Structure prediction request, 122 residues.
Amino acid sequence: MNKQAFLSALTLKRDSVEVDGIGTVHFREFTAREAAIFEAMAADTVDTVNRTVKSGEQLFELSLYTIVTCMTDEEGHQFWEADDKALLQDIPKSVIEQIADAILELSGMGKKSAQPKTARGK
Prediction:
């Protein structure tokens, strides 16, 4: 195997979720670089001494970053541009959370992924 064969074999996982009032929303998992950016942003939102969230706005920004970065069209092409985050600010919180949670789960970073494997029956 050479470098090109290795890199071409590594495709990002894709999935979709049904969202009430919208329909099917397609997305892909984070790349390693995108996940590192997300984790750095997430670390900055938590006060580790007091174990509290510093700002709800920062958590919201994490969700917007997740959606803008990973949401795709049916063919897997990027759906949003980086500048489109402002367009998402006034949609229902439940929609933002449903899509962002599905992306994080696919990327191995969701709530279920954080549970011990024995708790999930595996």
User: Anything to note?
Assistant: The beta strands are 14-19, 23-28, 46-47, 52-53, 71-72.
